[in-house]
Design goal:
Layout lengths: L4 H14 L5 E18 L8 E7 L1 E13 L4 E20 L12 E25 L6 E29 L4 E8 L5 E2 L5 E16 L2 E12 L6 H6 L1 H4 L2 E15 L1
Antiparallel strand pairs: 1-3, 1-11, 2-4, 3-4, 4-5, 5-6, 6-7, 6-8, 6-9, 9-10, 10-11
């Protein structure tokens, strides 16, 4: 959890210094979002028995700092440092080919369902923002670029189906909808990249002060599942890739 702190502090300090430059504007944002996790089974062989599915979206939220460096009145570099909460529901099912449980490896999972996975990140967007000339008090913009999410925490309400070896009897016993705790830790990757595209407008209140309203689509490019999670549920997750994407409504003010 402390890994992203140093680069984030450096970026925050840089934004504070840039704010003293007349070509730089600093603001604050609060952004509700709707996120989902998409699973892709990378094994395309006909003998593959794993089914991956998206089970639903999750409402999230982010807040933090945003800045713009104005190369010209119409061409800008948009930066930010936000605390992001997102996630989604997804599941994986292995309908065959499970390893048989043994005394040394007593559980074999046939399915796992995250309902939902709740992800927390430090979100750092780096965008090119193109603005129109002012129309009345309004400037319209479009932006495109990338964002990098640094993992802080991940939790999930997770449910499992499978077979277990029972020491007392030496027999195999199936189980369904088992959860080990009500909120298990979800192991996500440290950095998740996103492709970002969006549009919006800024309403001038006079001077450098402006109300910022926009909408962004953040398309996940990296696997949010860590190697530790894949190892635990290898019969389901080892040939799958899970990406987190979300749509955010951006509400803020530049000072």
């Amino acid at each position: 959890m402390t890994r992203p702190i140093l680069p984030i502090l450096l970026m925050f300090a840089s934004m504070q210094l840039l704010a003293q430059d007349k070509k730089f504007s600093l603001g604050f944002v609060a952004n509700p979002n709707l996120g989902w996790i998409s699973g892709i089974d990378l094994n395309t062989e006909s003998t593959d028995k794993v089914e991956i599915s998206n089970e639903g979206a999750r409402l999230g939220f982010s807040y933090g700092l945003v800045g713009e460096y104005h190369f010209t009145p119409n061409y800008n570099l948009a930066l930010g440092v936000n605390h992001l909460f997102t996630g989604g529901k997804f599941s994986g099912v292995n309908t065959g080919g499970l390893p048989e449980p043994t005394a040394s490896n007593p559980i074999s999972y046939s399915s796992i369902s995250y309902e939902p996975a709740k992800l927390s990140y430090i979100h750092v967007p780096i965008l090119i923002r193109l603005k129109s000339n002012e129309i009345g008090y309004m400037k319209y913009f479009g932006n495109i670029g990338f964002a990098f999410d640094f993992s802080l925490n991940g939790k999930a309400s997770a449910y499992y189906d499978g077979i277990e070896y029972v020491d007392e009897t030496g027999l195999l016993q199936p189980f369904t909808r088992r959860t080990f705790t009500t909120d298990v830790r979800f192991q996500q990757r440290f950095i998740s990249p996103y492709f970002v595209v969006g549009l919006g407008g800024q309403y001038s209140l006079g001077g450098n002060t402006a109300i910022h309203i926009g909408i962004d689509y953040n398309n996940g490019l990296g696997n949010v599942i860590s190697n530790k999670e894949v190892t635990k549920y290898g019969s389901i997750l080892e040939n799958a890739r899970f990406t987190n994407s979300y749509v955010s409504v951006n509400l803020g003010i530049f000072l």
